[in-house]
Amino acid sequence: NVNIQRRKLLKFAGAGAVATAAFSTFPGFLNAKTMRVGSRPSLDFNPDIEIRLTGEVKYVSIFKGPTTRVWKVTGEVLKGDKTAITNDKESYLAPTIRLHKGQKVRIYLKNELPSATILHWHGLHVPAKMDGNPMYAIDNGETFVYEFEILNRAGTYWYHAHTHNLTAKHVYSGLAGFFIVSDDEEQALKLPRGEFDVPLVIQDRNFDQQNQLKYDGGMMQRMHGFLGEQILVNGRPEFKLPVETRAYRMRLLNGSNSRIYKLAWDDGTPIKVIATDGGLLERAETLPYLTLAPAERREIWVDFSGKEIGTELTLRSLEFSSGGMGMMGGMGGGMRGGRGGGMMGGMGGGQSHAGEEFTVLKVRVTKKSSSNDVLPKRLSKIPALSVADAENPHSPRRITLSMRHMSALLNGRSYKMNDIRQDEVVPVNTVQLMEFDNGFHGMGGMGMMGMSMPHPMHLHGEQFQVLKREVRSKSGKGYTSVSEGFLDKGWKDTVLVMPGEKVTILKPFNDYTGLFMYHCHNLEHEDMGMMRDLLVK
Ligand code: C2O
Ligand code: CU
């Protein structure tokens, strides 16, 4: 009964004329019982757009034969531009959300799943309470209300579950989707649009004979991170994209729990990168191959004009070596056997992410195009941060990355809710000089568990810039600069730190106070404790 719900909510919001007027815009499904205390629609927030996301158990058809049980988010626009949400009924992926910089959005997250959960807007600069910290997880039947303004520049962001100890499992089950932001600067450029602007999320999974997702969660899997034998693009196996003879903008997201891809076109065409995590680069960068760690995004420009109809191109992932100093843990996790095309038979001896080449996706030229776009020489202007901008130019905040016994640690610590140490307090409206040091800390014991692994490090809040990437020199003293295979330009929110490396970043902490997380985006590592909060105040 809508009226009862309204009355309840009025009581809840503090009755009065103002509340009555404001409530008439709230949807009827909300009531005091199902709405999460601490997050309710606020009366002074006037959204341009209102969205409802519902997480529930669903069955989708991924393969021929039995459908697959997944955790799926379905979206609906309650108020405003209906094109802001695109549901993909045939996959487990959460809907793609498209918003414009400056828009104010209210998102109702309704949890109909058999577990508490919460969503985090990866890469977006939102208030701490809207950031999906695990402490805000809501139970089955509850609704969390997010309200924020899009402050980010145009870019390919995403969102996913961020549940305490369960992020890996929840994302694996399906709880992730694109969050694409546009802005005026980007719209003024002549970039491919509509069907020529293609978001592509790359993930790996394992399935049993009944087509059901397999995730064993065993000890080795947790140490190395989950590595699946089946590659899925946009939730589909053996993904093939039909294209016209023209330029495309492809937005690549590594939505895998822990697999790192090294992407290259099979015909030797170099990869032209136009954007990274936080949007467009100043100008396109050309690379022979592209390393894409979990949670990272790269937008690439691919021009098929001049290609014959029927031409097929394959985007492959090349053999990936963790590099470093060869002191890996020796279990390996190559792709073995597997189903579908392009799987391999190798053992990843010695390197946790090694594997032979495999196919990620195929592109097939099917149609002559009547239009084309030319890659602009200049895409954007990015103000470069410098050490002089930092509040701590001479004393970087050092974060050591280590794995010991059954834990993955940051500065020797494991995640604990509301456990802020002195070195985790950051003054608001400052830029911080920070370094991630993956130089074999906690190697004590060596053996199988004393390993050093690549760690894709992610910070919540604003995007940062990478100042330098160094590797510990052979003598073990000092670092030398390296850059091979990596693209560290532009705005980033996730940076891959290889074994033996030290990566220095400049990270702004503006506007919002409260808890903002930093963690490894190898989701198994994250759940094993490789995550901490920063208190911005
Ligand atoms: Cu994409 Cu804290 O995560
Ligand atoms: Cu890690």
TrEMBL record:
The chain crosses the membrane at residues 9-30. Pfam families: Cu-oxidase_2 (PF07731), Cu-oxidase_3 (PF07732). It catalyses: 4 Cu(+) + O2 + 4 H(+) = 4 Cu(2+) + 2 H2O. CDD domains: CuRO_1_McoP_like (cd13852), CuRO_2_McoP_like (cd13879), CuRO_3_MCO_like_1 (cd13907). Keywords: Membrane, Metal-binding, Oxidoreductase, Transmembrane, Transmembrane helix. It is an enzyme of class 1 (oxidoreductase). Its EC number is 1.16.3.4. This is Multicopper oxidase CueO. It comes from Methyloprofundus sedimenti.
